[in-house]
Amino acid sequence: MSKETTLAEVLASLPEEQRIILTLHYLRSMSSAEIAALLSVPQRSVDAVISAGKARLSGLLGL
To answer: How far separated are the first and last CA of the chain, in Å rounded?
Structure first.
């Protein structure tokens, strides 16, 4: 990705589940427990997606 790549572009490139969870967590300030309840998935799954997504975002944004 180029230096001009925006966060919105990077988020759009992620798989849907990862994009939704990361958006809820980082942009809506929801906890993993709140996201798990909202999406009816185990909290451990949400935590795993957040962890993997954070690493992927860092790589894509060159951080």
So the answer is: 12
Q: How confident is the model over 21-36, as pLDDT tens digits?
A: 999 998 999 999 999 9
CATH number of 10-61: 1.10.101.10, 3.40.50.1820, 1.10.10.10, 3.40.50.970? 1.10.10.10
C-alpha–C-alpha distance, residues 19 and 21, integer Å: 6
Q: Is residue 50 over pLDDT 90? A: yes
CB contact at 8 A, 53 and 21: yes
Is 29 in contact with 38 (CB distance < 8 Å)?
no
Q: How far apart are CA 41 and CA 11, in angstroms?
A: 21
